[in-house]
Design brief:
The chain is α+β, with helices and mostly antiparallel strands and 611 residues long. Strand 4 and strand 5 form a beta hairpin.
Length: 611
Amino acid sequence: MADIIQLLPDHVANQIAAGEVVQRPASAVKELMENALDAGADVVRVMIKDAGKTLIQVIDNGSGMSDTDARMSFERHATSKIRKTEDLFQIVTKGFRGEALASIAAVAQVELRTRLKGESLGTRLLIEGSKVQSQETEACAEGTNFMVKNLFFNVPARRYFLKSDAIEFRHIIDEFQRVALTHPDTEFQLVHNGSEVFSLPRTTLRQRIVHVFGARYNEKLVPVDEYTDIVSVSGFVGKPDTSRKTRGDQFFFINNRFIRNTYLHHAVASAFEGLVPTGHHPLYLLYFTIDPEQIDVNIHPTKTEVKFQDERAVYAILHAAVKRALGRHNIAPTLDFEQEMAIQVSPVRHGTEVRPPEVQVNKDFNPFGLPAEERQDAVKSWFEQRENGRSGGWQEMYQIQQELDRRPVLDPAGQVRPSWPEIHEDSSFMQFDRRYILVPSSAGLVLMDQQRAHERVLYEQYRKQVERGEGCSQQLLFPESVVLSPPEYAMLREHQQELAALGFDLHFDFASGVEITGIPPEVPASDCAKLIQSMATALAEDTARAGDELRERMAWSLACGSSIKYGQLLTIPEMKELAIRLSACNEPWFASGGRPVLITLPFGYIDRQFS
């Protein structure tokens, strides 16, 4: 049999390696920014076009490279950080594998300009699909200028599986933030399609966090500082009111390297136990300083996972540090370790009479004083009453619940729909607890949740507007302004067309600020700024949705924000109008998350309550 094993060509091997290192445009941004910092740069500028699919350009003022180093940097396993095996356990730089540039050059067209400090001329290098096209001497600025064009141009399948520009750019923002948050003493800039998204000056860590996430976080940060022989923990956690349902602004950094670690996340979450609602996640930016020999950063191609030598000790220190920080700022009660852990019994004052507990009994009841037949009936009756009191008449309740649950439910295909309760025109409407609308129907008594009903009505209205690409807008007499964080601003601008279809007239005329000049007719003018803020936050946090799913999320978000709220008094005409509009909906039975909008109490159930 002929030999069949052979060595892969270099360009094929590089493309395989690129699949691990360069998963999307954001991966290239991360590697190039980290290389710039390793080169000693204190000014890093990132220029992006079409979410990195067309162009990724990273310019720095670092040390630059010589002619030979510029060429060697694109070879696989070429690195200036590692000389021997022992160096793997003393890594303090961000890049060290020697695969990043080779992987990027394997799947893109790369143009490099670089000049060493003190030299009069630099080098210009062109590489396409791992092949050097040209290398020549050229006058250029000190430092390095990388231009990565047409990413995945020679791997169409990889390019096909990239997400929308909005999602890919959100990933770029994530990587940009992670690098910028570890180097507050470095100036960063991010520009997308000619628009500046971030302009971060050199500053303190707290101010860098505020510049990245927005001024509203300035008063919400609680400092964390804990120094031990094993690990030092510093940074900030957010106050409980900054918690969110989605995991967004949560960062761990080990020796200035961003990592993910569910075990350490549990340590922080448990420190917030009882302070944030169930299902919410706290904000935190925590920085660990640890001896490089105590960790292994070489267990994942993207270097986002770290293995600790003593993970349990790090967990305990982190949990205690966060708990102490919250207690120090009167956010969580501190523990008094001096107090003996025993049952606390209030002392009895001198002279106070101690009375035994009283038990209520029927002293006249004596079944044994009755004739045998009556005695048996009395005991049986007593047990029946006792059991009925405990069970609450479970047999009857089970039948009632079965009757209540007979309401048809839509199947996933939406083919079977429940019948709408017939409400007569002369039916009397009544509001109960400023929360529910009660109205008699042909099937029984209908209880309608006023907020959920209005949410469903508005959702279907907004969904149609977004699908058609046109919606009504009422102009504000006095425009409102709202300042957003750069990611929120970028994502809101990315979806300006969908927002216009919902009825919002927005102007993006100043950095991270949005001017609201028109709103949907259903939205109160006093709520428009708050509503835009919440929608921008939702868009910035939820990057996994696209297309119809994203438009549905936006419609639900606007419907929930502008609907009638609990506690709002409604007139009878308003209640009737809401019922009519709800009956015209395609799926009037459920609000967001499958929550019921109305229920019907059947006549049979009501009759049994009076039997």
